[in-house]
Amino acid sequence: DIQMTQSPSSLSASVGDRVTITCRASQSISSYLNWYQQKPGKAPKLLIYAASSLQSGVPSRFSGSGSGTDFTLTISSLQPEDFATYYCQQSYSTPSFGPGTKVDIK
Amino acid sequence: QVQLVQSGSELKKPGASVKVSCKASGYTFTSYAMNWVRQAPGQGLEWMGWINTNTGNPTYAQGFTGRFVFSLDTSVSTAYLQISSLKAEDTAVYYCARRRVYSQMYYFDYWGQGTLVTVSS
Predict the structure, then answer these.
(1) What is the average pLDDT across A76-84?
(2) A96, B95: Cβ pair inside 8 Å?
(3) Interchain CB contact of A45 with B (< 8 Å)
């Protein structure tokens, strides 16, 4: 099975900050990588699919990059509604999620 | 618009069974596979498996065989998750999620609101 790791596990940031979250796969997964946002008590929401494609309706401040084993999710200018937990997920083989990165207010 | 609406919270005793429903609307139910994802309290997301909505054939992830059953009623566009012989460690929020295929890749583009199953004596 492919293991996913994320760093950092949590971060504190201010509105307007540029935020970068890293996801690493235990083996190459090409671009089979998706990103989700989850707010407390809510279902996950798809942000990015295929490593860098923005899901319809998602603000353009979110972007994804990477291929192979290393991927990043970038929020160019953090907004109040972006405080949440972010998960990466690979679909190269049996699906698996990263452990999550919690973004909270500094 | 696409919606997945799940059944309400459940409180069950150890050893009992529970059946969670996920009713789809706004799209052709049999055109997209349905997946199930578990989230234990304060924990991350764990993929449980999926069901082919055309054939009804389920696939279970490791750790979700035996007591977990995925089923369908295509006449009402609904997927079901049944868990038998409930244990305290089954306490979690269970999500259904639609799988969308994109150029050999796939992702979960719509999710149900989640169903909290609490197992306690």
Answers:
(1) 96
(2) no
(3) yes
